[in-house]
Amino acid sequence: MKAAVVSEFGRIPEYTDFRDPVAGAGEILIKVHAAPLSPIVRGLALGRHYASGVQAGFVPGVDGVGTDPDGRRVYFLFPKSPFGSMAEVSQVAQDMVVPIPDDIADGRAVAVVSGGLAAWIALTRRAPLQPGSTILINGVTGAAGGMAVQTARHFGARHIIGVGRNRHRLDALDLDTRIPLGEAADAALRAAFDRGVDRGRAKLTPS
């Protein structure tokens, strides 16, 4: 099969032939439609991420959208090394796929999940959001930050404070308090915390 192959750390992956994956017990093969080039993928491909390993010779990509053996269009996560998602076919565990609605395009699906997972995990695992909470989202104008706002509303946040650099994007988000980074940011943040932020359960800083 064809794939983007990391043959040497520090070099751009090469589009070339790579051996075909063979599904083992509890695994399936996915015909890949789209795969995101996220920061973690760049770090792994360059050998700069802690999970990169000690040698090259793999296909990068940690998630993507494709077709499973039953013809369903699915999102998949964490392909089995060395068969990353930037290939014609990827090898994944059966329990690491979910179906995608027909009205969501492949590119949109992978883009939404990349930012959405960061927000979802932060607000459901790391700092579980309680209905009626006041939360502060740092970096709200980024992809993960914007998804965090929607996730917080979904789980019943009462008051959302957003902090970010992009004033146009800040104004467009569904926020109760907007704090643009600048000379007045320190005073605005102090005032927000004086009024009360549920930091222990609901503060979020998406990466």
TrEMBL record:
Residues 10-204 form the Enoyl reductase (ER) domain. It comes from the Bacteria. InterPro entries: ER, GroES-like_sf, NAD(P)-bd_dom_sf, Zn-ADH-like_protein. PANTHER family: SHORT-CHAIN DEHYDROGENASE/REDUCTASE, ZINC-CONTAINING ALCOHOL DEHYDROGENASE. This is Zinc-binding alcohol dehydrogenase family protein. It comes from Teichococcus vastitatis.
